[in-house]
Amino acid sequence: MTKEEFLIRLKEDETYSPGWQAIDDAFEKLYPGQKPDHFGTLLTSRATMGGDEYLDGFSVYSSPKGYKHLVTYGMTVLYGDEDAFGGEWNGWGYEMTMKLKEEDTKSCMWAISMMSNLARYTYKTEHFFLPNQYVKGNGTPLHIGSDSLMTALLLVKDTEAESQVSVYGKTEFIQLVGITEAELHAIMKDKDNIPKLIELMKADGNTDLVTDMRRNKSYF
């Protein structure tokens, strides 16, 4: 699409949202015909309206493999934006995802809040995330109030959601994977333990790197 064609489309269709569509396209390919549970953030709470919320929403899909697949909307440019046209990367270049071994969406709400906090951190500090990084916490469970051993996050390229290219540039999907404190210390000590940890998880049958908050063992 040329810039001229893009501007005509913007003028003719005020609902035109190429960035949003790119996310939907990636997940429609994974879950054809499925209507996800979608949660939009309050308009008045969004940063563009003076609030402290930097994401526009979240969708939760049910994988036939037995887990919930979460994705954010808002790390990339979602709506009509002339200034974003023709970039190499759309916005920060990625949306966050997470796969949780849960049967219902209600059990995933804590993760949505966590993703919101991570988005706020990126927008305020301009420190963005990349695959093969980690996010350490304070040693307590990711799900506040639970007794889970998952206390930190490993970041990987989503094992299923494919990168998309829109008129705004490339959108990748970075998957958040819950890890234990012992695993965190191992990769902080030696980053070569990151691919080793991924390999151990996959060898144990977790090929999609699903976060099981009930996991009671560490791989290191």
SSE arrangement:
Blueprint lengths: L2 H10 L5 H13 L6 E4 L16 E6 L5 E6 L15 E12 L8 H17 L8 E2 L14 E8 L6 E3 L2 E12 H9 L3 H11 L17
Parallel strand pairs: 4-8
Antiparallel strand pairs: 1-2, 2-3, 3-4, 5-6, 6-8, 7-8
Structure explained in plain terms:
The chain is an alpha+beta fold and 220 residues long. Helix content is 27%, strand content 24%. It is built from 5 helices and 8 strands. The protein has helices at residues 3-12, 18-30, 109-125, 181-189, 193-203; strands spanning 37-40, 57-62, 68-73, 89-100, 134-135, 150-157, 164-166, 169-180. The longest helix has 17 residues, at 109-125. The radius of gyration is 18 Å and the shape is globular.
Identify the notable features of this structure and list them briefly.
eight-stranded mixed sheet; 5 helices; 220 residues; alpha+beta; 8 strands
How many DSSP H or I helices? 5
How is the biggest beta sheet arranged? 8 strands, mixed
Distance between the termini: 49 Å
Estimated helix fraction? 25-40%
What is the H-and-E element order? HHEEEEHEEEEHH
Q: Into which percentage range does the β-strand content fall?
A: 15-25%
Query: What is the alpha-carbon Rg in Å?
Result: 18 Å
Question: What is the SS-derived class?
Answer: alpha+beta
Describe the global form: globular
Number of strands: 8
Mean pLDDT: 94
Low-confidence stretches: none
